[in-house]
User: What shape does this take?
Amino acid sequence: MSERGQWSSRIGFVLAAAGSAIGLGAIWKFPYMAGMNGGGAFLLVYLAAVLGVGISMMLAELAMGRAVQRDAITSFAALGGPVGVFFGWLSLLAAFLILAFYCVIGGWTVGYLGLALSGGLFDPVDSAGFARHHQEFIADPVASLLLFAVFLALTALILAGGIKSGIERVSKVLMPILFGLLLLMIIRSVTLPGAMEGVLFLLRPDIGGITPKVLIDALGFACFSLSLGFGAMLTYGSYVRKEENMAKSALWVVCLQSICAVLAGLMIMPAVFAFGMQPTEGPGLTYITLPAVFKAMPGGQLFAILFFLLLLIAALTSSISLLEPLVARLIDRHGFSRAKAAIVVLLVLFIPGIPAAWSFGGADLPRIFGQSPFGFMDSITSNLMLPLNAMAACLIMGWRNLPLFLQELYLREPKQGVYPGWVRSVVACCRFLAPGVIVVILGANLLF
Ligand code: TRP
Assistant: This one.
């Protein structure tokens, strides 16, 4: 496997993995999920899930990838036997479905960048106008499909560039800039008149508001936001050098991601309340609120352009990591060249992308279990496939391949580099806590 790409440094890996984690999930999905699930209650469960089980689940996945040095299906099969093969395929199916709707939102971002550049973003005069403007924008069947295609093509283009030159270089420069811009926007948002109510809505821990739906949404979003459960981290793990301390890197990635989600919430929620909008708006929330915030800022157009550009890049670093497992599979298993693999995946992805793009009024589509195709793809992946797959990775490493797991967690023999108590708790979490939590939450949602 000498031609297999590798990260050039620890920081390169951390930023690439954080780049995968931090994307539309934090900035688009977190605020609207929190808004629909009671704000403080959702944040509480989300943070508990991420810090309690997320880190261990991420390590299980990274370790699988680095141990086997192959794509997701091969790794699942090698370590998990026949059951592993099933989960390997499940992970690729999940990747496929997520990418389809992810690229639709990526397309919105491209579109909003265009609107920011042309100034059309600021046409509406009141909050109802911003909402209407967004609804009209996403209901246009031609534009939504076209923008989806543009975003998908951008993803494939970067991917074809390979590991070091493509993914790593882009992440390294741009993630820090995005962070700075988030902070700036928060300052504007929380100083709007009436913003405090939104801050409280998000930050006040609301234990009474925790329902089975909040639990499953928060758990599903924890997996989604950490890019867990379908081989993205597994694939990234396979490019990590053996002498690297993965535990430390994973901790960094998890912290950066959850900080980013909270920051995005702090950027959106106060503005939602200040402008009298609805926190339960759903997938459009970020795209309706932000233009209003920009309009209320001096130099708003410039910041809007910068912001949507960076959001686009954050989305790209994530969609790259979604495509990478599929591309890696074609390369490792079927001997495709990188460029050819990227093109094939791109073309196939167009098919599930069409119903996802037209779910917002672009066409009269049948509903699946009472949801639009978009909503269905979103919830079945986040709330079922990702947690199941993450659990499989935990069980496979925690029980079936424990010696291998320990070997990956410790830097090398003699055991060094990592605090042993921590390794023990990671292992215990993978063996008992994470599978337990996932079974209980999935069960509660089947029953209630
Ligand atoms: N975590 C990314 C986000 O929050 C989305 C993502 C990228 C993802 N790769 C993934 C989700 C793998 C699940 C699995 O935007």
Notes: The chain has a mean pLDDT of 88.
